[in-house]
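Regression test attached.
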Amino acid sequence: MPRRPGVLRRLRRHRTAVVGLLILAGFIVATALAPAVLPYDPNMADFDHVLLWPSPTHPLGTDQLGRDLLTRIVYGTRVSFLIGILAVGMSGLLGIPVGLISGYRGGAMDLATQRLIDLLLAFPGFLLALTLIAVLGVGVTNVVVAVGLATAPVYARLVRGVALSIKEQVYIEAARAIGVPESRIILRHVLPNCLAPVIVQSTLQLGAAILTAAGLGFLGLGVKPPTPEWGTMLGEGQTYLFSSWYIATFPGIAIFLAVMAFNLLGDGLRDALDPRMKLG
Amino acid sequence: MSTSLGLYILRRMALAIPTLLGVTIIIFLLIRLIPGDPARVIAGLNASEEDVQRMRVELGLTRPLHVQYAIFLNGLLHGNLGTSAATRAPVTEEIAIRLRPTVELAISSIVVATVVGLTAGIISATRQYSTLDYVVMSVALFGVSIPVFWLGLMLMLLFSVYLHLLPAGGFGGPAHFVLPTIALAAFSIAIIARMTRSSLLETFNQDYVRTARAKGVRRPAVVLRHALKNALIPVLTVIGLQFGTLLGGAILTETTFAWPGMGRLLVNAISSRDYPVIQGIVLTFALMFAAVNLTVDVLYAYVDPRIHYG
């Protein structure tokens, strides 16, 4: 694997990337501490305390079932982050091998794969995820599958592009000439070159996946209640927007902060991993 | 020249046909991949065994798959997308009523996104590392991170509930367009601004721009006439792709603003498992996206004289 000295140092000096990392760290710390610090159950209804305005006992207020909003948002971090990580992992697992083989082998298989990817990219991404939900039904697993499948073509195309440019390099030709098996060339020489763009893409894609999953939840077609998921909470809060604005507002801020953090980190990683970029 | 451009457009349209056929195959197969018995699902929970059997025949599910597809495609070419399971009305009729609101929202948003995004990108690039550049890029970062449905609700809260300036939802006069358009365009404005900025900055380093500067061409003229023209090419691609994002976002925006378009119909159809309607709308969205991509390709040939459309 090619050594890139100073990637971490570059990342540390990238001010916006550090901000992104700090926000993500904040989410993770809050989630880890939640059971010890927050006295409320995220899913238990409490009909004596419905639709309470933000106050010292309920810093972000309570929802239509009397559940503490802060508690639900903090617990929702697990759900949203888990969906994001699993969905991105799935699209990577599907897309990266396809892109590697398609780009390295070329020929008829490449042509066929590319046409298939063209077809999948002919659907707007959110529409594809939504259609898959229409077929699969709602629920956490199906949201992961829908978002993961809808994003896989992006990885295949990205990795194929890198593989195409790498396979023309002299050292690949040299490896082939001395009889290194194809699978070893792909794994040891082509794949490592794809890692930098894949890491950048995955970080940005984590934000996008969380956003898509939240969109499905907002439409009532994502994670099933009462599981605390930010988009679903926002959708439920929409009904009470005019009287209790905070129910829809705070989950939205959580989505916004999480997505922005992944975007900041992704942009920072791109700058840090690209030696041609100068740090501003 | 114009005849060869015409030929290019024709050839490009011919190339789109296999893709469109593929899209119909995917949609056709997806609906048949529904776990369980599609006829039972479509007929509804309370359907009798006879109803289910009738639905099976109506959907042609008793025939081999390739025959089913041929029937589906034949119907499609004759403008027949089947009947809605919920209203028993033809799907094409259901879509026709809702097409205009969605198309109008999408067009107003892409126009706003292009105008604002290009302007912001040009301002940012010509004043690189200035406070203004910093502000524009920060706002753009917000734009790519804000959930479209949440932005819609917040705009509604501020401008309708508190300031009473604009209607909170529904379809009607120009005032009804303001909030949904801003909410829907925000993400695309940000993407277009970022792309314009980086693309312009790249062209500023090109020799011909330096030459133009050296021979004394004024700076605005260099930016607009020399640099922007070349910088526009990647921006055009992004605008085309953004239209796809916009169509997806329209589904969310329509739900937020009670907009009587195809997006809301799709969400309702998914909730009530009205598969003929789902199939029809997904197909319509995919066709619209394909038409836009085709237009972008043709515009390419127009903007970039280096593309030979022989």
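Expected vs. actual: identical. The radius of gyration of chain A is 22 Å.
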